[in-house]
Amino acid sequence: MKLKTQKISKTVKRTILLNPGPSSTTETVKDSLIQADICHREKEFAEITREVAEDLVKIVHGKKNDYVATLFAGSGTICIDVAIGSLVPKDKKVLIVNNGFYNDRALQVCQYYGIPVVDCKFDVLELPDLDVVEKTLKANKDDVAVVYMAHQETGTGLCNPIREVGALAHKYGKIFVSDTTSTLGIIPIDVYKDNIDFCMASSQKGINAFTGCSFLIGKKDYIEKTKDFPKRSYYTNLWRQYSYFKENGQMNFTPPVQIIYSMRQALKEHFEEGEKAKYQRFMTIAKTMREEIAKLGLEELLSEKITTGLVIAIKYPEDKNFDFQKIHDYLYNNGITIYPGKIGNLPTFRLCNLGSLQVEDILTAFKVLKEALKECGVAVPIKK
Ligand SMILES: *Cc1c(COP(=O)(O)O)cnc(C)c1O
User: Fold this and answer.
1) For 281-295, what is the mean pLDDT?
2) Do the Cβ atoms of 72 and 304 come closer than 8 Å?
3) How far is the CA of 181 from the centre of ligand 1 (A)?
C-alpha cells in the first residue's frame, strides 16, 4: 500500500537581514525545511546528522581523525556553556582574553559554574596587547588550563588575533578555545594554522541555515580526556554528547530535526560557492557598505584595519533629530532589519554582513536608509 503525499508550497517575502544572525536564507535552504515527518532515531536521519557533523569539520579544514563536531540543540551561547563547563579540569583556571561583550559572556559562564578565571581585560575598542597576554599567561602558567578568546567581537566588529593567541596558548602547553560563532563559514579558518583546539558556531550564522543547532568543533584526544573532568552540567556536557554520538551515531536527546535538514542544504551551498568566493562576496559587500556609509556622512566606530568587515558599528550622528528606533522601524516596514549596538554606553548601531546577501541588497538598504534619515528630519549627507 502506498501512503498519500502532502503538498506544501508557500510564497514568502524576501527580507534583508543586517542583524548579527539569524541571517537571510536562500530559497533552497527555506525549502529544505519541508521534509516527510521522521523519527530522529531512524538510521536515515542519523546518517544525515553524521554527514552534517563531518562537513562542519571540513569547513575549518580539520582532519577526521583529529577533530570532531559535536552538535547541540540551542542557540550559539550553548556552545560557550558547553566549552567552559566541559573543558576545564578540576581546580584549573580559564584565561579569557577579554575585549568585549562575547568574551564577557564566557566570563559569566565561568562565574555561574564556579570556575576560577583570569580576566585578561582590554579596552573594547582595541586589539589585545599580546605582550600582556603572554605575561599574564606566564604568571598563571601553573593554574591555567584553557585560554579563551572570541574571534570576532560581534558587538563591535573587532577581529581578534586568534592565530597569535592560539600560538601563545600552545607555547605554554594550554588548549586554545575560540568563539568563532560569527566568523566560521565566512572568514576562512584552518584549525591547524590558526592554532585552534576548539571552536564553535551556530546554524543561523556563517553557514546560513536556520536557528536552533549549535556545534563545537574540537580535538578528539582532548575530549577523550574530559571523561574524568568535573561534570558541571547534565544537558550541556561535551563528553556526554560526544560519547553518545560515538556509540550510537545520534545525538543524546531529541535533535532539532528540521534545522539539521536545513544545515545539510546550507552546507551543500557553502561548498558549492567555495570558501574563497564566499569570503570575497562578503568582502565586496563590506566595501560597498563602507562606501555607502561614507556617502551618507555617517562615521564608523572602529578603523577598518582592526575589523572583520562582517559587522560595522556606526556612531549615532550628532543631529538631534536622529532617532534609532524610528530609523529602524522605517527600514523594517520596508523589509530591512538593522540592529542596535552592544558597547556599554557608546551610542552606536550595527550593520552586519551575513547570509544570502548580495551587493544589490546593500544598495537597496542604503537607499531606504537615506529615505529614513530624511523622514526623521536628519539632513543628508550628515554634517560633522
Ligand atoms: C551570535 C553569537 C553568539 C551566540 O549568541 P546566541 O544569541 O546564543 O545565538 C556567541 N558568540 C558570538 C561571537 C556571536 O556573534
Assistant:
1) 98
2) no
3) 6
